[in-house]
Amino acid sequence: MLVPNQAEAHPHVFVDSSLTFEFDSQGLKGIREKWWFDEMFASMILGDFDTNHNGILSKKEAKALRDGAFINLKDFNFFTTILIDGQPYMATEATEFTPSIAEGTLIYEFFIPCKVIEDNKKHTIVATNIDKSLYTAFQMDPQNKIKNLPNTISAQLDFDIAEELTSPLTQMAPEAAFLTFGPK
């Protein structure tokens, strides 16, 4: 009777997300993310940051949104979980943040630097978006992409359940993108 119950949460924010694995001449440069927020959350955030309510984020409004609603996601690794060759990689930086409004919803686009040099070895990157508090539910696009792949590198991108990312708290395994690349 004195055993504590596990707290059960349910999502309050719903996000559709896509990942683009971007390469340069040396290998993987990083992951470009795009998030589409649900209508309820978008209207709440835009009510605070689209101050003239014209459905367009000015540079000033976009900077205020970045500073007031995005930059704090650093404390949560931007809800991005990455394994590089089985080892956790902490997403501590996001660059090129661009918020926009399309069809009445809020969209975030940003880049997570995640350099993996092509060194004549096969590399596997597993990436997903997850909020471990379960406050935000992510639905990942199964058609993630590869961009700027050099002709000296071979790559394959798959989408599957990531058993290796199962949460001990919820026992749930998220869907994730699996990128494998190496020399041709």
Oligomer state of the chains in this structure: single chain
Shape: globular
User: Radius of gyration, Cα only, in angstroms?
Assistant: 18 Å
- Distance from first to last alpha carbon: 61 Å
CATH architecture: Distorted Sandwich
Relative helix content: 10-25%
From the 3D structure, determine the CATH topology: Acetylcholine Binding Protein, Chain: A
Task: Indicate the mean pLDDT.
Answer: 91
SS field, number of helical segments: 2
Our count of domains comes out at 1
SSE layout and pairing:
Elements: E1 13-24, E2 27-37, H1 39-49, H2 59-70, E3 80-84, E4 87-89, E5 95-102, E6 105-117, E7 123-129, E8 136-140, E9 145-147, E10 153-161, E11 175-183
Parallel strand pairs: 1-8, 1-9
Antiparallel strand pairs: 1-2, 2-6, 3-4, 3-7, 5-6, 7-11, 10-11
Written overview of the protein:
The model is unreliable at 1-7 (pLDDT under 50). Strands 1, 2, 5, 6, 8 and 9 form a 6-stranded mixed beta sheet that branches. A 5-stranded antiparallel beta sheet has the order 4-3-7-11-10, with no helix packed on it. By secondary structure, the protein is mostly beta strands. It has a single domain (13-183), classed as Acetylcholine Binding Protein, Chain: A (Distorted Sandwich), CATH 2.70.170. The longest helix has 12 residues, at 59-70. Helices cover 12% and strands 46% of the residues. The chain has helices spanning 39-49, 59-70, and strands at residues 13-24, 27-37, 80-84, 87-89, 95-102, 105-117, 123-129, 136-140, 145-147, 153-161, 175-183.
